[in-house]
Design a protein that fits this description.
12 helices; Rossmann fold; 3-dehydroquinate synthase (chains A, B); 7-stranded mixed β-sheet; homodimer; 2 domains; alpha/beta
Amino acid sequence: MEEIVIKSSMHDYTIIMGEGIRSQLSKFLSKDYSSILIVTDENVGELFLEDVLAGLDSEHIFHTSINAGEQSKDIATFYKLQTVALECGLDRNSLIVALGGGVVGDLAGFVAATFMRGVDYIQMPTTILAHDSSVGGKVAINHEYGKNLIGSFYPPTAVIYDVETLSTLPTKEVRSGYAELVKEALITDQVTLANVLNADLNNLIPSKLSIDLKAGILKKAAIVQQDEKEAGVRKYLNLGHTLGHALESYHGYGKLTHGEAVAIGTLFSLHISEDLFNTNLPYKEIYDWMKVNDYPLHIKLLSDTEALIKKMKADKKTVDNNIQMVLLETTGKPVNRIVSDEALQNYLHSFSKRLVEV
Amino acid sequence: MEEIVIKSSMHDYTIIMGEGIRSQLSKFLSKDYSSILIVTDENVGELFLEDVLAGLDSEHIFHTSINAGEQSKDIATFYKLQTVALECGLDRNSLIVALGGGVVGDLAGFVAATFMRGVDYIQMPTTILAHDSSVGGKVAINHEYGKNLIGSFYPPTAVIYDVETLSTLPTKEVRSGYAELVKEALITDQVTLANVLNADLNNLIPSKLSIDLKAGILKKAAIVQQDEKEAGVRKYLNLGHTLGHALESYHGYGKLTHGEAVAIGTLFSLHISEDLFNTNLPYKEIYDWMKVNDYPLHIKLLSDTEALIKKMKADKKTVDNNIQMVLLETTGKPVNRIVSDEALQNYLHSFSKRLVEV
């Protein structure tokens, strides 16, 4: 079992990684809660809800399930969960547990942030991707105009990461999670990047996954402790997310996985960076690794450039109607840059060409 | 012009009270915002929006209007305002201005708290009642099960209180606001209470109003600085609100004003307190003052006791399914007490009888 303590402006909290810890929740509760509501989705619930319930001995335990998928991160499901929480009799001294991937974590976390102006919540991520969203206290739902546009900075009271739950993930989800690990490695250093690109996602060994996961969490933890509210360095974690979010939103949440969209967005950021900074970045290595591991690098995803640029403008990083992007001077050295609409249009075209040519 | 500085865990902010300051907003902005969205309601907008706009010289100024009344504090209007903010191109560096009473302040404040995970906002209260809601950073919307059940603690960057705007208030609104001033006086001391009960709401002199308002704000400010997140003494501000919220919710938001409901709730708290603590409280003075000033103290509002108790249970102060109420040992000495369902039922009956008998 590994423990990483995160300092936040509201309170410190611990990330606990280990095998089988999903059924030991009682052990990690810091106080006596009047009631506990576990929020999960249909798929994760079927696999792990029983285990989690078995590890809780209090009387007032409730659980509710949402439809799996990004579509559930909407205002209607948010309101429905508030209703469920009220109907279960939750009060200010209650706990919400988010058992699932990033959708469940972001949604249940935002419910916790706003239920009676905020109650405690615990993240129990069950995907690789959620190593990213479960750490750092960013919770949100989507707006029809874009991803995560309505939300809060509201740290969990703990993150309980049972790596055993990752063994059941379909390859598509493994791919999605590794896109964020690659992103984190890109803003860390060359060695970390080389390590991550060693992963064979079609034959992933649990011990290899645990190592990559821990490296990602440590990088994320270091950054969010330095800049909780995303005023500075935390923005770097958005590498690949400007186009990534636009692609997800344009093609409909749930069609592309988040990580698949971020993968394309990351390549796009490298493409622009190489041109802007006149430098060589590991575009080719990453492209090759993505290709081998079946990332959907289809140019048709990019065909409606105007719509994508409009989507990018709705991004939270937009300042004064200018699109801000995270770019890389070198591996481990991210920067923020404004990229004009015209330049973006050109880069989307040259990027599409490059995707075909390679 | 008077200034009161409030310290909060997120940042300090200033309450500025004065005449005509609604048209000097630029002067009070602490930084250069990329855009400003003024949220108001149809009534307030007609009276004061032009003045506020005249005091702003930036290019990117937008405004939007909601329907007046508590019904607008719902999830649909909340989402609609997020949409408006996105369509106006607001970004993380934008400002939201809440121009209006408590509904506009709570709603626009909660939009600001959650738009792209939080942007700055300024409260410009235009009612007496809003002296209470605009100070302290509690923002929220209603759930169909009860008032303010979805929200945040999110302090404004400033409160600009133009007392000139209060001269246009209908008596019903003056009454509503004074109920909170009476509540604040009751938890302050006998002198403050005697002062407030000197007010003749049908012939209110502006200078008298300003004095009472400032006393209320100072009490509120002192309490929220001591206990921002309502873990302790801030709960005392809920005197009269347990039954008050239940009455509002049961009879439909907007039928009774908030203050009218709180007035009845305050009397009810005094009624219980006298019995529980075997003490004499200024029940009769307050009742007489409310009667003279036309507060709706109708027993028919209380007839469905079971439904009211159910509503009271949905209150945020409920702990372990027990209703917690703020009671008074003496004027200036509030306490929190659990009151059982059975006792509440009896108290509601004896209170109804007392309302008729006096």
